[in-house]
Specification:
The chain is 59% helix and 15% strand. By secondary structure, the chain is an alpha+beta fold. It folds into three domains: 89 residues, Ribosomal Protein S5, domain 2 (2-Layer Sandwich); 44 residues, no CATH class; 138 residues, no CATH class. A hairpin with a 3-residue loop joins β1 and β2. α3 packs antiparallel against α8 and α4 packs across α5. The longest helix is centred in the middle third of the chain and has 51 residues. The N and C termini lie close together (11 Å).
Length: 293
């Protein structure tokens, strides 16, 4: 099955402490580029989440957004750094004595120093968090893959339709190929007849040699053989499915090169028109293949 490189999936999973929401978007890209966004305190899960994505996808720009919400929030408590408080108290008393003041120290005198108070949060249960995140991520990735597969099958249907049209044009070129040398011979004979004065005969042997040279130049059989070979490989890759986007793109480049050469060698209005039509179809197929994983 072919897969497109564009898609979207989301997943949610709740545990005893809270729930995860994961969204995954994918776009066209030459390679696999994974971007993950999540809260800084949860960044410890980025690497395992990235590995999970690699298990599902092999190509595309992947954007993952993972968010966590705790039920009732995480437990927090504020404690006093008594050692630091004693140091500040001693320093403030020294300052008071130095300034000759006699007012006693007040609680609000210490509120200007937030470092005296320590906010302690309940530690994450990493095993529980990863288990929940993994399930939410798998749900999102499953949805993404389903969407990519559905679009991939639509792309495949369009590609197959166009490739069958290309095959039909190649068959027509194969029928015309044996006629090209004779067409050249007739064209050469007619041109010589226009150029040679009346009463001057044309050496038939020399004409045969020139015709043979031209016939060799306009022989498109090798290009047709290679086009058919590439076409058979295209059908094989489409049948096999999987991550074949780059292979298909390479084969289309080769086919484009062969049809260019064929159009130049044929030097025949009908064959050239057929070659142009093949090129146009191949370009349209390649546009679709750019979306294949």
């Amino acid at each position: 099955m072919l897969c497109s490189m564009t898609g979207y999936g989301e997943g949610e999973y709740s545990d005893a402490q809270g729930y995860w929401k994961v969204e995954v978007r994918s776009y066209n890209h030459r390679f696999l580029d994974i971007q993950i966004r999540m809260a800084r305190e949860l960044s410890v899960f980025e690497d395992p989440l990235r590995q999970k994505v690699r298990c599902y996808l092999s190509r595309g720009r992947i954007e993952v957004v993972a968010s966590r919400e705790e039920f009732g929030g995480r437990k927090r408590r504020v404690t006093l750094n008594e050692g630091l408080l004693a140091g500040y108290r001693e320093a403030l008393e020294g300052l008071r004595d130095f300034l000759g003041q006699r007012e006693p120290l007040r609680v609000q005198d210490f509120l200007a120093f937030p470092e005296l108070f320590v906010l302690e949060e309940e530690a994450w249960d990493r095993e529980l968090l990863w288990s929940s995140l993994e399930k939410a991520a798998e749900q999102a990735l499953d949805g993404l893959v389903i969407m990519r597969q559905a679009e991939g099958e639509q792309l495949k249907a369009d590609i197959v339709h166009k490739l069958k049209a290309v095959e039909g044009l190649i068959r027509t070129l194969e029928v015309r190929a044996p006629l090209l040398p004779e067409t050249y011979r007739e064209r050469l004979t007619a041109r010589l007849a226009d150029l040679v004065p009346d009463g001057v005969s044309i050496d038939p042997d020399r004409l045969a040699v020139e015709a043979a040279i031209l016939a060799d130049r306009c022989d498109i059989s090798e290009e047709l053989v290679r086009l058919n070979s590439h076409m058979n490989q295209m059908w094989g890759e489409l049948e096999e499915g999987g991550s074949v986007g780059r292979k298909l793109d390479f084969l289309l480049q080769e086919m484009h090169r062969e049809i260019n050469t064929l159009g130049v060698k044929a030097n025949d209005a009908v064959s050239t028109a057929l070659a142009v039509e093949v090129k146009s179809l191949l370009e349209k197929v390649r546009e679709q293949v750019q979306n294949i994983e």
